[in-house]
Amino acid sequence: MILPFNLLIPLIAVAVIILGLFSASIKVVKEYERAVIFRLGRLVGAKGPGIFFRIPMADIFRKVDLRVVTFDVPNQQIITKDNITVDVDAVVYYRVFDPIKAVMNVENYIYATNLLAQTALRDTIGQVELDDLLTKREELGKTLTHLLDAATDPWGIKVVNVSIKDVSLPEAMQRAIAKQAEAERERRSRIIIADGEYQAATKMAEAAKQYLESPIAVRLRELQTLTEIAREKNLVVVTPTAVGSDLATMLGLMRTQSKEGR
To answer: How much is the pTM?
Structure first.
């Protein structure tokens, strides 16, 4: 049956409208996304992942990404507790765990989280001294993570980690720290030298006590020292008569042994 042309056009128009409404009612969100739906201004809920249906012209939705977001905190010039100006860079990692809260409780959760991270960084660094800032970065990062996570929890945001990336010091402060480190190394070297002198003096005192108990040991040590000196043939050794006779005897024995060795 062939419909008249004047009836065919309205049917085609109705079919096109129905097909357009049907295609507009079908939406798809990815695995890492959620769609927060509002129907006539009222919250319906979060849909996804996959395919879902909405009423055209009645439902509007907003996609929320659930993946971890990386935010590089801009260079912050901060005064530490001991009144030293430093430039601090940090990185914040966070994600949305409740898309409904992220849409309903804050206008722009990304912008709000970024500003909150800058404020928390300035407040935390301002309460510590420079030495703690340079040596306890991991602890400060954990403190910042805890503060931000508690503050963003009502927004449906989970702060995964905060890492202090870089701490820049003024050139004058760098020179002062270098001088301090040099003085510290000099102090340690002097302590080591003094400790070595003390140990040597202690051993010499113990040896003196042993020589006092056995005078012959002093004599043998003296002869041994002279023998070592006599090995240098270009030296002239002046000794007392008794020592000289003993030394001459030892030299004679050494020469005899050397001739026999030849």
So the answer is: 0.63
Provide the token pair at 125. 């660094």
Domain ranges of the chain: 23-65, 69-174, 206-262
pLDDT tens-digit series, residues 80-125 = 888 888 889 899 999 999 999 999 999 899 999 999 999 999 989 8
Q: Ramachandran region of residue 196, left (φ > 0), alpha (ψ -120 to 50) or beta?
A: alpha
Burial class of residue 120 (count of CB atoms within 10 Å of its CB; 0-12, 13-18, 19+): buried
Per-residue pLDDT tens for 32-47?
Answer: 999 999 988 899 989 8
Question: Which among 86, 94, 198 has a CA at the least distance from the CA of 134?
Answer: 86
Cα(224)–Cα(218) distance, integer angstroms: 10
Can you name the CATH fold of 69-174?
Answer: Tetrahydropterin Synthase; Chain A (3.30.479)
- Judge contact between 51 and 26, C-beta under 8 A: yes
